[in-house]
């Protein structure tokens, strides 16, 4: 896949799935903007990749998202592909404490998870779409999760947010498809990243979890990155408003 001359923006680009996607886009010739709350890590990755820039952003803040796209505009003059991927789970705000049942979920945890995972995607889209419209279109991929399809106990906020992202994705596809903007989602299964690795690798948990995955392994961030880059490529030119599930067969 050739992304020479294409300008790409990846949120949550400093770690895990985002960082793997940044690397793949850069290897395919794209100019990549790495946007992340962890500005230092974004800078470090940008230094490794020719033509890449870093951008500190909190996607919960709509003004930050506008400033992020302004940075891309100034640096690259256009935006061809956006991967809205920054995300957290309930476990993040609770810092390792067990997630309580839904009726006991602290309101600030609900607001933080919805704020990053759903509002954040909306704030990014409303900043990105005008630039894509101005420069003739583009391709957008939003990160959902298996929890856009099924749920588990004690994941109310994350499940609600990820279902929301899928709905938002479909709306954008319908609303902007006639102006050459495609919008799709990717649903990763269980991916070994800093978001999940302390949970999924616990010895009492790991084997039973692996047994639910027909391919018998957790995904590597690169497994998801390949799906994202393809969705953004010309090869996926007729794919719009759908979700590509990269879960090793879990949902089958
Ligand atoms: P990760 O923790 O390795 O990377 C997430 C990145 O998002 C980090 O660099 C973090 O600094 C950044 N981030 C978090 N909050 C932010 C904010 N408010 N503003 C800007 N940046 C922020 O996690 P991973 O696993 O790579 O997750 C990426 C996406 O994939 C998330 O949306 C997550 O929900 C989703 N996902 C992950 C799965 C997994 O098993 N790891 C499974 C399904 C979905």
UniProtKB/TrEMBL annotation:
<dbReference type="InterPro" id="IPR020904">
    <property type="entry name" value="Sc_DH/Rdtase_CS"/>
</dbReference>
<keyword id="KW-0560">Oxidoreductase</keyword>
<dbReference type="Pfam" id="PF13561">
    <property type="entry name" value="adh_short_C2"/>
</dbReference>
<dbReference type="InterPro" id="IPR002347">
    <property type="entry name" value="SDR_fam"/>
</dbReference>
<protein>
    <submittedName>
        <fullName>Putative oxidoreductase</fullName>
    </submittedName>
</protein>
<dbReference type="InterPro" id="IPR036291">
    <property type="entry name" value="NAD(P)-bd_dom_sf"/>
</dbReference>
<dbReference type="GO" id="GO:0016616">
    <property type="term" value="F:oxidoreductase activity, acting on the CH-OH group of donors, NAD or NADP as acceptor"/>
</dbReference>
<comment type="similarity">
    <text>Belongs to the short-chain dehydrogenases/reductases (SDR) family.</text>
</comment>
């Amino acid at each position: 896949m050739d992304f020479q001359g294409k300008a790409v923006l990846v949120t949550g680009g400093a770690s895990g799935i985002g960082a793997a996607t940044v690397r793949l886009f850069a290897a395919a010739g794209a100019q990549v903007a790495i946007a992340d709350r962890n500005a230092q890590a974004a800078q470090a990755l940008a230094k490794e990749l020719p033509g890449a820039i870093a951008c500190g952003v909190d996607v919960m803040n709509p003004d930050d998202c506008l400033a992020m796209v302004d940075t891309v505009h100034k640096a690259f003059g256009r935006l061809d592909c956006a991967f809205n991927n920054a995300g957290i789970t309930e476990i993040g705000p609770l810092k390792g404490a067990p997630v309580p049942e839904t009726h006991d979920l602290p309101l600030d945890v609900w607001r933080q998870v919805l704020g990053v995972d759903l509002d954040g995607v909306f704030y990014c889209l409303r900043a990105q779409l005008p630039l894509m419209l101005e420069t003739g279109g583009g391709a957008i991929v939003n990160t959902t999760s298996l929890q856009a399809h099924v749920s588990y106990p004690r994941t109310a906020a994350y499940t609600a947010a990820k279902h929301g992202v899928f709905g938002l994705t479909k709306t954008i596809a319908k609303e902007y498809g006639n102006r050459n903007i495609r919008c799709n989602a990717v649903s990763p299964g269980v991916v070994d990243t800093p978001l999940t690795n302390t949970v999924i690798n616990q010895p009492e948990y790991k084997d039973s979890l692996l047994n639910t995955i027909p391919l018998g392994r957790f995904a590597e961030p690169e497994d998801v990155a390949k799906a994202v880059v393809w969705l953004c490529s010309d090869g996926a030119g007729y794919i719009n408003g759908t979700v590509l599930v990269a879960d090793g067969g879990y949902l089958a």
